[in-house]
Amino acid sequence: MAAVRAYEPRRFKSAVPFYERYRLGYPERLLRRVLSFAALVPGDRVLDLGTGPGLLAIPFAAAGLRVSAADPEPDMLDAAADAARSAGVTLELLCCSSYDLTPSMGPYRLVTMGRAFHWMDRPATLRMLDRIVAPRGAIALFHDHHPDTTENRWTKVLREIGDRHGRSAEPHVAERRADEYRTHESVLLASAFKVLDGISVTIQKPITVDEIVGRAFSMSTCSREKLGTRAGAFEAELRAGLALLSASGEFSEIAKLEALVARRP
After folding, report:
1. Is the peptide bond before 107 cis (omega within 30 degrees of 0)?
2. Domain ranges of the chain
3. Is this prediction's pTM over 0.85?
């Protein structure tokens, strides 16, 4: 059994401005399909766990749901609050993580997590969510995947240069590359939430070198804080590697954005 990594509540502090600007948002048609599949109606309670700058919380609130947005990073919650004001929606902001969940917080009809579940003690989180999620409720894990296409060659450059600057040595990266790593599906199937359905959409959009660099700094493994004095060398090497692929600095991004919805039998 893999050991639970040390909890780092402020791991994303320096990544906040890059995360809110450069991370992929979730397409409206994906969110609509999740809402329909989970049979949510306006007024239902939703917990967005690991909300970041509110990329899920805000559109769900705009759909009329009562959303609690939880994150252990205060700067992320500030970004979510600013974005919510701009969108004209209200969020309940909770400065907490999966380790702070209690049964008294529920019940929620849906608990969402956007690119966050892998940071948690997944079995323990699911056991607590079994006490928080309403009887007919669900969990939805959102993430994105870049298919191995010629348009996405820049992702390989980013990954390889990140590895040379320490990314591959990060415990969570090494864990996910190990043969014994249990996928989210494996962990869910061993929990109370063992009925799984996948919902996805695929998009294509232009992306520039500056946006790729910003995307890199939005990742905790390549954040300016993590890289420290190596941040400038990392950026220079990344820009040089990308220039070999496109002299114009213009690229295309093909991404599959997915929601894995888990319910009880």
Report:
1. yes
2. 13-263
3. yes
